[in-house]
Each structure stands twice: as C-alpha cells, then as structure tokens.
Amino acid sequence: MAGERYFQLVFQFVFPGDGQLIWLTLAGQSRQFTARHGYTTVPGEYTVFTQAGTTNPLLSTAESLRGAIEQDLASRGLADKYTVASTLLAATTPEDADGDGYVDDPSVDSTGMYKGQITLTARYYDTTLDIGALQIGGFGGAGNDYPRFREVSRNPTLLPLLITPDVQLATCYGSATAAVQLTVSGGLAPLAVRWDDGVTTLTRSNLPAGTYRVTLTDANQASTYRDVVVGENPRIDVVVQKTEAGVTLVASGGTPPLAYLWDDGNRQAFRADLGEGTHACTITDALGCSADVVVEYSQLNCYLVRNPIPLRLDAGALYRQDPDLKPNLTFVCQVLVEEQYLSGQFTAVGAELEQPADRDGRTAFQVQELLAPYLRHHVPAAVGPVTERAESLFKRFFLKYAQVYGTPPVRAAALSAEQHYVLLGGLSFTEARARTWQNSYQQQVKPFLTWEPREKEVFVDQPEFLYYQALVATPSVRLVVELRFDDSTTQELNGGEVEGGVQRYEVFCFGCGYAQLRLERLPATQRARITGWRVWVADDDGFVVSEVRTYCLSQRQAPLRRYVLYANSLGGMNTFVAEGEAQLDAEVSGDQVELNLPLDYDPLAGDTAVLERELKPVLKLASGVHLGRVQQLGLQELLLTRRALLWNAGRWLAGYVKTKTVSVLDDGKSVPTLEIDFVLPAERQFTPYLPPVLAGQSAAPVGPDSGAV
C-alpha cells in the first residue's frame, strides 16, 4: 500500500510546575493530566522529578507522564489502539537561545540543556483514533511563570491509497465492448489517476479484454498501482464431429441458449443429410454473439495401417493472400482410438501433435504408427463353423485437429473431429501411391480380403476362410453357399448370417472350407456327389454385395499334406497347402560350463554342467508339384506374412516363415514348386500333445508322436 499514515501527536516539555495542567483529547474525550512535585499514583497525575545535577530527572518525568497516559488508555480499553513513547532531547544553549518561544529550564546543570518528549501514535489506519490539539493549563506553583509544554506536530490519519474497479465484461468474445469504473480513496487529496496508455479518467469504455495498469498518486506524491483485469463472455467453441451417421456441431461456451442456422435454412445441430462439399452454419447465443463454422464434408475413409494415413490441413486461399490474418500459424492434431469396438469410448493416443504451416498455410500429419499397436490379426476357430465379426482386425478412430495462431498463439474456436476406420493391412509401394484400390477397385469388384485366385482347389480337411468388408451399411449379411454336384445340379445353403446391423467398413470372417461349412452333415450319398461350391455374400434383400469365389473339391491323393494359415496383405487369412515331403529340423542351442573337479570328484556328475538347452523346431515344407503360375505368384503373400499358424491335430500352432531367398517363378522349371521353412516356438522341455478330454470321456495315454508336425 502507499500514501497511508497513522495518526501521531508529538509534544515537548521542560520541568512543569506543581499543579500544571494539560488536556489530551483521546478517542473523543478530553482527559486531564496534572503535574505533581512529589510522588503520586493518582490516576491522571504524574510525578515531576527535580533532583539537580543529573539528566535523569527530566527523563524520569517524561516516563511518569507516559505511564499516566498509558494508565488512562488502559482504563478505557484503548491500550491496544495507541503506542506511547517517551524520550529525552538534548539542547545546546540555556534559556531561550534556540528561539522556540520556551524558556529552557535553568535547574539543569551546566553540562547541557534538555527537553522531554512524548509521542502518541495510533496503531491502525482509523480516523476515529485522531487526537485533538494539546491544551495547556496554568503554570502551576509560584515562580513557574513561563510555558513548559509545546506541541511539536500533530498529523491526522491518512488512509492507504485504494483503487476499486467495477468491470463490465466485453459482451462478445474478442469485441471491444468492455467498460471500467474506478473508485479511489485514501492518501492526501487531491488524487490523480493515470492509465498505462495515458488516459487520466476514472471511467473507461469500448475496451477489449486484457489487463490494464492504472496508477493513483496523492498530493504527497505517494502512489500505488493496480492491474485491472478486463474479461469477456466465453467464446463460442465448436467441435465439428463427422461420423458415419452425419455431422454434429457440438457447441460450448457463449451465453445459452445457442441457436443454429445453416446456409440451407436448417436449424439443427445434427445433420444426416449433407452432401459432399462445403457447408456453413452460424451459431448465435442469447447475447447475439455468433460463430461461423465452415464444414467440409466428404465420405469417411477406411485406411490400411501399413500405408501412410495422412491428415492434410489447409488454412485456405485467404491466408495465402494475407498470411498476417493468422500470424504464427500452426496446426494441432490428436488421435483417439476406440479400443473396444462399439463402446463409444475413444482414448487419446499419445500426446497432441503440432506442426507449423508452410508458406502456403498447409501441413500434413501421418498417424499410422500411432494406430498400428491397436490392431491384431484375427485367428478363426480351428474347428467348427465360423461366422463372426473380426473386431481385432479393424478399429474406429477420430482425428481431431484445429488451427492455432495469434500473438500469443491461441487455438481457433472451431475444432474438427473426423471418424474413420483403420484396417490391419496394406498395399504395395506402387499401388499405395496409385490409390486404385480406394478409388475404384474395391467399390466395383467388391473383393474379399485376399489376392488368391477366385477359383481354388481344396481338400476335404482343408481349412478355408474368407474375410468380407462391408462397403455399405445394411441390417444383415449372410454367406450364400451354392453346392455343385457331379450331375451339374446345384443346391443353395446358408453358410452363416450376421444380424443386428452391419456398419460400413466392418469386417466379417466366414468359414468356407468343407469342414467349416459342416458339409459332413449332408447324407452320405449327397456328399459323395459334391464336386465343389461357390460362395458370395448377400444383404438382407438378397442382393449380392461381394465377389463370387469357387472351391473345387480335390480328388487327388496327397497323404503328406499340411496346412499353414497365414495373414495376407489385406488383413484376411489364406491357406497354404504343402503336399510335398516335409523335414523337421531341430536347431539346438544352449550353455554349459566345465566343472572345477575336486580330488574326490563324483564320476557320475561328469565334468560339465549343462546350464540351458533350447530346441527350435524348423519344419521344411514344400508345396508339391500341383502349383500353377498364378498360384506360384500369389504365394508371395506367404513370404511376406507377419502371422502364420500350422494346422495340427485340430488346433493351431503359432510360428513364422523364416526369411530366405526363394524362387517365386522360374520359367525354366517345368514343375514349379515353393519351399518354405516354418519355425515353431522354441522349447525348453519336451511334451507331446495332450488332447483335451470332453465331458463324460476318459483320457487316453499318448506317446511321443502325439501332435507330431
């Protein structure tokens, strides 16, 4: 604080005469104090000490007067309101040589002249504690014919300088409509006001939000300042949420209620009927403040996570004409993923990303690496029919983004949040750039998620699965199976149905092998006549919504055949048939240490301790001689796969295809074949396969060949 001052009264005296009176007006009452030449304890009286030849008498007199004043204050409950101080002041000449109008006391010895002084000071900034002028009564006893008291100073209370602002908010965010009215007090009038921009009035108007410093100065040049914070009503913030269902404007801030007006006259926050292109909406609050929102609407995408997933942002043509419209422009982006499909709970992935705009006001984020950890290959059941949504294979996610600009930079009021899908797959280097898959191929061909030939030879026990991605929403889809018999007749079966609503870009797994379709349930005479089957997906109205694939039932004898299920580049699972002779190698590694043998060593312990042993099974498989050129080229998928499973005794065994140089195509060979090394998990203990025991059955003993690959 500044400009403040407590009340203070200072008076001086020399030896008062016996009976001399003074009056002090304390807290509105006049109080009398009487000098006594002789010791006294009567309230309102004090002792005048007169011993000559020492400086103590005058000081003792001052202390006695101080005690009388303090006693009076205490009796009235004012002891905590004032401080009373007594002291002795030296003078340099006798009599009245100092010209103060008072005769100096001649009773003090020749070593010097002195005065007593009493100082009363209020403890608080309170004008009710101010004391009136010192009043002096008679001189007292005979011979005291000159004044013995003098008021030196009496300063009234000055309250601290105070600035109290009354602030009226700016009506709309960013507008210059705020006002300030100051109330000032304290100090010694007159008071002067000065704002940091030079204005000297107590009233300010047409102000934008911000912090304004004002300084208050009194007549004593004491000053204080205050930073006046001028606020504004909340900004109208909008999240433009784009989902498969449509566009929702999620507005907050402003002064409710909020009203919406689209450029086509619609007044709803949610729009399910917007066509592709640019749309505008004005949001207005109860005070008439508004925010204009531009919505760029287009079909949402399903991205392949092993190719770039770009978010290209552009500040627009106006920025390119005048970049000063958005100084220090950057873009921020946040990825949110729905870990549990259809839960509606989207979790932020990592930290918010921020990138500066280039000279044209553009930037591009790539987010595929943030999404990849949330996707896993789908592994269908090893036995039985399969008709299920492959939820681990795809995810929904939001891309939230906004512009940030200004000095200092501030996030723009409009924030966009686009919902997309991402699939565990990818296209080749060339095709990813060409975008033929997204622009035309998938929509027109409606392929299953595989690059295998559309017609495929299969064995009775061969597991086969097709993955279907819905390109339009529909109430249900089903796998249609058309059996073909040796007399050219056909029979249509339901291979599995998905009900309860199918969303665009969802992926479903359908079992398409002989066992997965449960064809063994057909009568034996009918089964014997099956030559193959065709499959496709139909919607609830029976319209075909996928390509048609054909499976030809093989009659060849291939007793050594083995099956490897492997993930293809589109996210589906293909089956590789190895009909050739197989070889199982065991890559054994371990650690051992030579023992330090004592003289009385145990020969049964040997001279080496085995610390660790690990056996890595490597199954060398060959496709056999049945491959054609198309099949041979298609098996490049197998060499690139990141997920492979070996079919073994009605179960899947995890492993991987070992990297090595392989001849994919050799025109010089009349009989093309493909050889791979399938590496199984390393083992540290040997255990044969223990088949599960069904309820009501007993476990049968097994040998070391149980589950042999």
From TrEMBL:
Taxonomically, which superkingdom?
Answer: Bacteria
- List the Gene3D superfamilies: 2.60.40.740
Q: What is this protein called?
A: Ig-like domain-containing protein
What species is this protein from? Hymenobacter rigui
Q: Top-down, what is the taxonomic lineage of the species of origin?
A: Bacteria, Pseudomonadati, Bacteroidota, Cytophagia, Cytophagales
